[in-house]
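re the bet — no i am not wrong, look at it urself. input seq straight from the record:
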Amino acid sequence: MDWTHYRFRSLWALPADPATVYAALERPEDYPRWWPQVRAVTRLDDTTGVLTIRSLLPYAMTFTAREARRDPGAGVLEVTMSGDIDGWARWTVTAAGPGTLVRYDQVVDVGKPLLRRFAVPGRPFFRANHRLMMRAGRRGLTAHLRAV
């Protein structure tokens, strides 16, 4: 087993229509306004940006995200990532009753030396840290959508 390889999946039920949710998710430069753990987003061009994230544990991760797929009709936003984490992440937005179901999938390898060094003993903490970050993201986006 590669202890620095991670697969994550999160499901968010949100109180807005899919088009509104998709519009919010396709603007990563706005994430720091509603997602506390997304500390900074710097656009490099229309399809590339540098993000810095930090959750509960005392480390930040910085990576470059490049758009791999933007398909509003299918409700898919996908990026490739390189830097402290390497891999990909995908948002899939679908209608669900009066609101929206968002599925977030991520497959990454951790490159940050400190996290690689603590890969085995730290793995449960890193996974919990990710869950906390995603929970805060869902809450933040829900509040943001209600304010729109």
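see?? The first helix runs from residue 18 to 25. told u. also The longest strand covers residues 85-96. so pay up
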